[in-house]
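Weekly modeling sync, notes
Attendees: S.R. (lead), two postdocs, one rotation student

Agenda item 3: backlog of single-chain predictions. S.R. asked that every request posted to the team notebook include the full sequence so nobody has to chase files. The rotation student volunteered to paste the first one in as an example of the format we agreed on. Action items at the bottom.

Example entry:
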Amino acid sequence: MSGNGFRIDENILKEVAQTRAGLLDSKHLPGWFYTSPELFEHEVDTIFMKEWLCVGRLEEFANAGDYAAIRIAGEPLLICRDNNAKMNAFRNVCRHRGVEVATGRGNLAKFTCPYHAWVYDLEGKLMGAPHTKELRAFDVTKCSLPRISLDDWGGYIFINFDPDCQSLADYLDEDGIRDFAAFLQPENTRLSHKFTVDVPYNWKFVPENLMDMYHVGVIHGESFGGHFPVANFRFNLQKHGYNATYESYTMAPKGVTLFDTMPWLRGKVEPLFACTTWIRPTMNFFGRHDLLQPWIAHPLDEKTTRVTIYTQLPEEYFDLPGFAEKNQIYADFIELVATEDLAMLESLQNGVASRGFVPGPTVKLERAIHHLLNYYLDRLLQPDDEARAQRHGDSREAVMEAEARHGAARDGGYTKSFQAAE
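Predicted structure, as returned to the notebook:
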């Protein structure tokens, strides 16, 4: 039993056993995996308090005093850049009564608790606390805001609530993220648009939907699904996640690109180049020849999730004539695509909550989702190395079969041999 009261017993293990089966023998998870408050608290303890979580871009904190107060799974979090240009993350709770010392986003020279006016500097140190001088056992040096681990990769900021966590680099390398995405140079892009929306469904539906090839031609047929290799999509499964390179229109109306290929990709990829990877637990990363577009999901509770979509372009594009108008077209389009997805997921949340819901089978196009469902089970219940090995073997066979039937994946020339030549 976990500390929140969620009990792992034989009935639960039996109920999810079929999800552990091979892809074409498997079934989706039972509906309570997406509705149970007790399971959600267990997810918070075992996933969100243990794993690295993306919380923004470095450029969003360009100046000393820039800060953001956010919440992830109910935990108040404060991120800021201090006067030494260092990025910091703290638990956003005053050391007196626990009131949040900052809200929203902005720029401040110090953080003042709105309840009793305890004041903290940008390094989290307590600078002053009214009416505490007469206290006999009060030590101001021991009343800093609780610090949280923070690191960055590719211009993205990650935090980890676990003081004993592995390094971000090792965490990413478990799924080959840095090797796979290095050529995209996300650190050399700039945020051109940010779309944030709170949605009424469980956080797990967001990454699942973003790796679901089954729905692309149905929901997105009129937006970007017109040129998408649904039937021949090739997933390269990693330890926990996956990556893929494929052909797709860029994320613009009718797939018409309004910007040139990113400078570092020119001559190396084709206009239909696309790639994706998943950074556990809730960051789905997408690249096209002209832009990067990660999606990040933060759970607020078991039925509410905050979704943020970044659009990133090369720095030099911001000075081009007509940039604002072109960028707005891209911004409007990704919000349209997001709306197509997010509306459907609300219906999905309602459906799995029905007493009549019985999980259906996983199909070939849901290979990545099947892998993701088993990641949940590994983290929340107990790991199954044998099932993981089977998934990896099945994935390799599927890729080999696709290559035998259809030839090498048309990924714009980005292959392991291309990487080696670089």
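Discussion: group reviewed the output briefly. Confidence is low (pLDDT under 50) at residues 411-422.
Action items: rotation student to repeat for the remaining queue; S.R. to check formatting next week.
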